[in-house]
Amino acid sequence: MENIDITVLRALRDWRAAGQQALLVTVVRTWGSSPRPVGSIMALCENGSVVGSVSCGCIEDNLIYRYACPGATDALPHEGVPQSVKYGVTADEAHRFGLPCGGTLELLFEFNPDGASLAELVQALEAGQLMARRVSLTDGQVSLIPADAPAELAINDTSLVNTFGPAYRMLIIGAGQMSEYLATMAQFCGFAVNVCDPRDEYRSSWSVPGAHLSTEMPDDLVLSFKPDRRTCVIALTHDPKLDDLALLEALETPAFYIGAIGSRRNNAARHQRMKEHFGYSDDSLRHLRGPIGIFIGSKTPPEIAVSIMSEVLAVKNGVTLPRDLDVAHVKNQQLTADQSGCVLG
């Protein structure tokens, strides 16, 4: 699966190119608990087709009815300047629309967004460009501005600016079984997945549609891949000849997550090699994660992949994980407890 924003914008582009009327809906503010964050978008076609979401489903049903059903009460217009509406202002409305804990959403409706502007935006996103889309709230005019960094949605009395990025990318070193599980999960989470393995015996059995498989040496691919702040690099081969150089190249980039599988002993040995042979220090290795994943007692390849994907998403979303989920911390505690038991016994 690809980045949901690109999916929504592409569908909206196609509807408008086909001459169909359509609505772009953006979550611009939330109060209390909300099912979708600010900046989330959905597209609604005059025939009732919908892509994306702004809630858990109930608001979407209401919008489809108001926009696409002839004779609907409180029908939405099909043209005009952008309009905003709040859902869940009262406890009764929140319950009716399935909003949790009295949550409230404010949505912005854009009627029949310009097809040429949508095509330009989708083309830029598909090319890997981060783009800010500015909408004038007085007349609906849209301007597109290349952006240097991700930004939160911004809205005032006259304009809305929503920044759209290309898909997050995951570069996996190694095409083994665990890589297949991780690649599958990453694609479901909207990551574009690239897998690198120069070993024929591993590539020959690769079977994950949608994940690009490369035969290059991993460090060469990292250089050409140019990891950015929307990229994670994960080494899964257990082979220092493949993992170490790729990780060292990744550490020179702004990738938001860089890590390698392995035990605490293997992780310590990797750090030692990098310090002895490549001149790295503890400080310069602080962004190298390992053992990777969160502690969920995982034993099998799919469980370990869940653990790794969970940590990647936490880092991506800016969530600080408690120490009780840190693999090395928990296993050190278990080792201490086992040793104490042996002494006491």
What's the layout of helices and strands?
Blueprint: H1 4-17, E1 22-31, E2 41-45, E3 50-52, H2 58-68, E4 83-87, H3 91-96, E5 104-111, H4 115-126, E6 131-136, E7 142-146, E8 154-155, E9 159-164, E10 169-173, H5 177-188, E11 192-196, H6 200-203, E12 212-214, H7 218-225, E13 231-235, H8 240-250, E14 257-260, H9 264-278, E15 288-289, H10 301-316, H11 327-344
Parallel strand pairs: 10-11, 10-13, 11-12, 13-14, 14-15
Antiparallel strand pairs: 1-2, 1-5, 2-3, 4-5, 6-7, 6-9, 8-9
Helix pairs in contact: 1-4, 5-10, 7-8
Strand tally: 15
Largest sheet data: 6 strands, parallel
Share in β-strands: 15-25%
Structural class: alpha/beta
CATH class of the largest domain: Alpha Beta
> Which parts are unreliable, with pLDDT below 50 for 5 consecutive residues or more?
none
Distance between the termini: 53 Å
What is the fold-level CATH name, i.e. the topology of the largest domain?
A: Rossmann fold
Integer-rounded radius of gyration: 24 Å
Mean pLDDT across residues: 89
> How many structural domains does the protein architecture include?
2
Label the overall shape: elongated
Question: How are the strands of the largest sheet arranged?
Answer: 12-11-10-13-14-15
CATH homologous superfamily label of the largest domain: NAD(P)-binding Rossmann-like Domain
